[in-house]
Amino acid sequence: MNTVKEIKRNLHLEQVHSKLLYLEASNNYTILHFSNGKKEISGYTLLVFQKLLQGMPLFKRIHRSHIVNMKYVKKVKPKESLVSLRDGTHLRISRRSMTLVEKQ
Fold first, then answer.
1. CB neighbours of 56 closer than 8 A, spacing ≥ 6?
2. Of 3, 35, 43, 97, whose CB is crowded by the most CB atoms within 10 A?
3. Looking at the predicted structure, is the pLDDT value of residue 31 above 90?
4. Full residue range of the structural domain in which residue 88 is found
5. Which residues make beta-bridge pairs with 23?
6. 59: Cα within 13 Å, side-chain hemisphere
7. Number of domains present in the structure of the chain
8. Rounded CA separation 67/64 (Å)
């Protein structure tokens, strides 16, 4: 198993985290969505990314299938359980995560 430092180095996570819009779980893969519209698929699960991004307070897990960069959140819609991002993307929020997002 790779260490956290090795994974971060392999993914260049330190350099790309500011451009990272959100992460989406897809089975045992993770799709990274960037602010320029590009996507990358990683062989690591969303849980691995959650651990990697723990020290970065802008990243919040809002659903079992999404981690979002709060810097790009435009609007929170509690009644619809949605987060709107600056690029027009709408993501579901779990009920438990709603309080995390509303505090931001």
1. 17
2. 97
3. yes
4. 4-103
5. 32, 67
6. 23
7. 1
8. 8
